[in-house]
Amino acid sequence: MSQPDTKERILDVAEELFARQGFHATSLRAITGAAEVNLAAVNYHFGSKEALLDAVFERRLTPLNRERQARLDAVQAVAATEGRPLRAEEVLRALIEPTLRLYESGPGASSFILLVGRALSGSDELVRQTFLQHMGALFALLLDLLGQALPQLPRNQLFWRLQFALGATGHALRWAGGGLELPGGFTQPPSVEELIDMVVGFSAAGMEAPCP
Amino acid sequence: MSQPDTKERILDVAEELFARQGFHATSLRAITGAAEVNLAAVNYHFGSKEALLDAVFERRLTPLNRERQARLDAVQAVAATEGRPLRAEEVLRALIEPTLRLYESGPGASSFILLVGRALSGSDELVRQTFLQHMGALFALLLDLLGQALPQLPRNQLFWRLQFALGATGHALRWAGGGLELPGGFTQPPSVEELIDMVVGFSAAGMEAPCP
DNA sequence: GTCTATAGATTGATAGAC
DNA sequence: GTCTATCAATCTATAGAC
């Protein structure tokens, strides 16, 4: 070890700046300056700017995905013991709720939420690819469970509706993370609780829409 | 005039590169190189890189917004003569369909669709602000008409659901513009027609979801 | 592990000849 | 209007002293 955690301070600041300004718009100087560490520390501890981005994702996504996986398993188990099919609403909630609840786990996490919103919306291809490398397995499981919940929906339609739900969720995450200014001086953001209910309700209704 | 339209060629190339790589990741040298014009031409014709971005939006958004406005007016008129309330589905379609139909108006337009998707998702704050400057009035009208279509929905809920719909639409636009690679080697993109129906159907169902 | 110093490349913008 | 040449700033990354 070194200082009261140089590595951690770099991760905290990088997370915030990548989220608020984007990856390309954030220089190593901005990161090391705000973290009050030396410019060379990033390359010493992480190897490169890209590897730093990967580390930012890895730190939060490893425990978060563990929790999401557990909740998806639980949803499956409950439906099985109750002898009923899965509901799209509970599957989506198992995915979305742990993510948005990160918001309550401290000020740093809200930046991460914003960063995930960014990655979900594919704003920056490098950010998106790095994010997807940590998400591949979960995405496949998600598609499978939603297929069980909506067996009448053609697989093609299912895929695209899930994309729309991810688009809506990504947008919600950017709001929750404080990444967007309200247009036209509108109302203040809702509570995390309300936002979860709103985006899950919206997405579930969209997924269950009658087939055209 | 000069060459067979130096200014137009710069706009075409800038539109494509801003859409595919992002604003910050695109250098003036990349633009002028691909457009086969001199490096100094951008500053001569537009003044700065930011002013070029504004011109890219202005070129397509002025006629597009005129059409969207006309369609929203038409939807209102039809509902009035038929003596029935507005439907959320037709309001959303009046907004979304002209945008996605740009896709058929030539290869250049598909890049613009992708760029709008980018701007909608707030990936880059400068791109988003520039885009919003061209959209302010239409957004207010949209919120008003959706309020008429869903009078039982609290104004707060309405606002957020519209945000989710915009998130879903932005995601759809990025797919339609060819901006995202399909994860897990999935199926090919649907036709524009199908995509319009899917995203309008999804968003309308989400907006009309029962209030929690 | 942390620091200074700097290499080496790239950027947006401009001056001035033609 | 177009061109060359270049400035001044910025960037990532690294070498080498401590």
Q: What can you tell me about this protein's structure?
A:
The structure is a homodimer of 212-residue chains. Chain A is mainly α and 212 residues long. Chain A has a single domain (57-207), classed as Tetracycline Repressor, domain 2 (Orthogonal Bundle), CATH 1.10.357. In chain A, 71% of the residues lie in helices and 0% in strands. Chain A has 10 helices and no strands. Chain A has helices spanning 6-21, 28-35, 41-45, 49-81, 88-101, 107-120, 125-133, 136-149, 155-176, 192-207. The model of chain A has no long low-confidence stretch (mean pLDDT 92). At the A-B interface, helix 7, helix 8, helix 9 and helix 10 of A face helix 7, helix 8, helix 9 and helix 10 of B. Chain A binds a DNA duplex (18 and 18 nucleotides) through helix 3.
